[in-house]
C-alpha cells in the first residue's frame, strides 16, 4: 500500500512539473521571445495533432508495431544468448567477446546495410530495433542468472533435479527481477532503433514524419511527432514497470 501511494505521489509530481513546463513554454512562445520556426507553441502542436489525428494515429501505430516486433525479438534472442553464455564455458569464451565487439559498432552505421540486404519494408527496421535493444537483455539476464543465491544452488544439487527443471524452477525465477529491469531498458532502445530505421528508409511512421517535416522546416509537425513518441515511451515503460512490480510482489510472496 505504501509503495502504491508513493508511486501515485511521484506520478502526480511528474504531471504537475509537466503542466508547469508546458504553461511556461506557451507563455514564452506567445510573448514572441522565440521564433515559431525554432520553438512552436504547445497550443499549435496540440492543434496540429487534433486536425490530423487519424493520420498521426496510423503513423504511430506503424511505429509501435515495429518497436514491439523488435523488442520481442530482442527478448527471445537476448534471453537465449544469455542462457547459452551462462550454461556453456565454450560459448562464453569464444562468443561473448564477439558480442561485445559487435555491440560497440554504432547501429546507425549498419542501418544502410540492412536496407540493402532486406529492402525498404519493415524487416530492416525490426532488425535495427533488435540489434540496439538485445544487448541490454543479454547483460541483465546474465547478471540475474549468475546472481542466484548459493543456498538455492546447493538445494538444487541436493534434490538432484534435472538441469532443465532446476533452471525453470530456481534460476529463472531468481533472475526475473534483473531480466525485467533489462527489458525496461531494451524497450526504450527498441523505440530508438525503430526511429533510426525510419530515418534511414521509410515511407511511414513517426520517424518518417520527422524527416519529411525537417525538409520543409515544419517544426510544429516535428514536435507533434515527438510528443507522440514521448507518450508512447512513457506508456510502454509504465506497462513494464507494472510487470516488474508484479514480479517483485510474486517473489516476496514466495519468500
TrEMBL record:
GO annotation terms (biological process): transmembrane transport
Q: Where in the cell is it found?
A: Cell membrane
Q: What is its main location?
A: membrane
> Where do the ABC transmembrane type-1 domain residues begin and end?
60-241
Query: According to the lineage, what is the superkingdom?
Result: Bacteria
The record's keywords, sorted A to Z, are: Cell membrane, Membrane, Transmembrane, Transmembrane helix, Transport
Residue stretches spanning the membrane: 60-86, 98-120, 126-145, 179-200, 220-243
UniProt cross-references to PROSITE patterns, sorted A to Z: ABC_TM1
Keyword Membrane appears in the UniProt entry: yes
Q: How does it sit in the membrane?
A: Multi-pass membrane protein
Q: What CDD domains is this protein classified in?
A: TM_PBP2
Task: Cite a single Pfam family from the UniProt record.
Answer: BPD_transp_1
Known InterPro entries for this protein? MetI-like, MetI-like_sf
A GO CC term?
plasma membrane
Indicate the family of this protein. Answer: Belongs to the binding-protein-dependent transport system permease family.
Record-linked PANTHER family: ABC TRANSPORTER PERMEASE PROTEIN HI_0355-RELATED, ALKANE SULFONATE ABC TRANSPORTER-RELATED, MEMBRANE SUBUNIT
UniProt name for this protein: ABC transporter permease
Amino acid at each position: 500500500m505504501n509503495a502504491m501511494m508513493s508511486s501515485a505521489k511521484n506520478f502526480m509530481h511528474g504531471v504537475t512539473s509537466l503542466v508547469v513546463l508546458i504553461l511556461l513554454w506557451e507563455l514564452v512562445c506567445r510573448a514572441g521571445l522565440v521564433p515559431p520556426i525554432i520553438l512552436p507553441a504547445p497550443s499549435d502542436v496540440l492543434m496540429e495533432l487534433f486536425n490530423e489525428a487519424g493520420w498521426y494515429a496510423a503513423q504511430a501505430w506503424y511505429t509501435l508495431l515495429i518497436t514491439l516486433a523488435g523488442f520481442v525479438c530482442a527478448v527471445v534472442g537476448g534471453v537465449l544468448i544469455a542462457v547459452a553464455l551462462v550454461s556453456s564455458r565454450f560459448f562464453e569464451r569464444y562468443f561473448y567477446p564477439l558480442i561485445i565487439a559487435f555491440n560497440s559498432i554504432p547501429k546507425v552505421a549498419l542501418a544502410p546495410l540492412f536496407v540493402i540486404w532486406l529492402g525498404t519494408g519493415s524487416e530492416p527496421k525490426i532488425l535495427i530495433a533488435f540489434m540496439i535493444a538485445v544487448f541490454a537483455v543479454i547483460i541483465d539476464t546474465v547478471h540475474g542468472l549468475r546472481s542466484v543465491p548459493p543456498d538455492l544452488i546447493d538445494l538444487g544439487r541436493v534434490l538432484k533435479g534435472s538441469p532443465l527443471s532446476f533452471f525453470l524452477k530456481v534460476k529463472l525465477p531468481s533472475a526475473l527481477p534483473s531480466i525485467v529491469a533489462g527489458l525496461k531498458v531494451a524497450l526504450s532502445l527498441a523505440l530508438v532503433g525503430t526511429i533510426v530505421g525510419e530515418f534511414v528508409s521509410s515511407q511511414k511512421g513517426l520517424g518518417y514524419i520527422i524527416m519529411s517535416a525537417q525538409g520543409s522546416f515544419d517544426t510544429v509537425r516535428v514536435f507533434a511527432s515527438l510528443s507522440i513518441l514521448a507518450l508512447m515511451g512513457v506508456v510502454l515503460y509504465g506497462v513494464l514497470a507494472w510487470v516488474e512490480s508484479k514480479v517483485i510482489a510474486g517473489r516476496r510472496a514466495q519468500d
